[in-house]
Amino acid sequence: MFVTSLKKLGLLKFTNSFQLSILSILIISIALIFLASISLGSFNFSLKEIFNSSSSSLDRIVLLEIRIPRVLLSAFVGASLGLSGASLQGLFRNPLADPGLIGVSAGAALGASLIIVLGSGYLPDFIFGTLILPISAIIGASLVISLLYIFTQGFGYQGITYMLLVGIAVNAFASVGIGILTYISTDSELRGLTFWTMGSFGGASWQLILPALLIIIVTMFWMIPSSRKLDLLQLGEPEAYRLGVDVRKLKFKVIISSAITVGISVSLSGMIGFVGLVVPHLVRLLGGVNHSYLLPGSAFLGACLMMTADLLSRVLIQPAELPVGLITSAIGAPFFLWLIFRIRKT
């Protein structure tokens, strides 16, 4: 039903029946994983208790104030990283473009880290609020994406190595900046910086995530209708321009939407790598390469993957938690190696 509504809105205009079936399966998977994620953890709930209004006050507090906000945040962060990865790969016409791999996440983390360590000392209290952290992360992500696009113009598909080298340099620069900030930080600031480097959804609350989720949803609905233009862009910028695509406007849209979603995700959950790389490729393997299917499919599969990673982080070594970034890296690193060998053989 949700997929049918999206198609009526024109967001899935160029998808076929097989691709719509895959999207429907992904949506069902999101619902099932969501129920499993809010049920399992150090504090378990049965499905009966979840829908039972007579449950104890402690159960309601844990479920409504801790577990559900955390699972919702993990779903939307996964969806935003998956969608931004697919969008950046379409913009760069490059299968290795990934927010973490090419330095976008690192730029966002550096912007957030600057506010964590220096913001309270240099900004007035009324400015240093809950919104300044996502804004600084968005600015950092925007600068990195813009620099990457400027540096990689004219290199085409052969610019994969060049783009990766630029991404490595950006990551190194961000690591230096975060290292300096770590050195001069106080104990409380150091705990905040450790959060960024490892990745976690433990700090989720309704007050924090509701504005972020609203912005992410609006940005996704702003980006997905450009899927057909991204398809035409794969023919090359001159050909896309000849077919009526405003290439400059499309670049701006992808850069801004990716910066917003990645910046907000990093500001709330820390640096979580490989999701934007792995998810779009899995979606392509499942059903095809057209972006009208790829963009929503990457968002749905990203949500599934991130909720699963968060669930594993909570149940593998109870009552302690594994950092979510370690789990996604453990999944993504082998896939990245396989992708490199696959590209070399083609």
Describe the protein's architecture and organization:
The protein has 346 residues and is mostly helical. The chain has 15 helices and no strands. α5 (104-122) runs antiparallel to α6 (132-152). The protein has one domain (2-38, 55-345): ABC transporter involved in vitamin B12 uptake, BtuC (Orthogonal Bundle).
How many E-type strands? 0
Structural class: mainly alpha
Mean pLDDT: 80
Measured by DSSP, the beta-strand proportion falls in under 5%
Fourth-tier CATH superfamily name: ABC transporter involved in vitamin B12 uptake, BtuC
The domain count comes to 1
Helix content: over 70%
CATH fold group:
ABC transporter involved in vitamin B12 uptake, BtuC
Unreliably modeled segments: none
Shape category: globular
- Compute the gyration radius: what is it? 20 Å
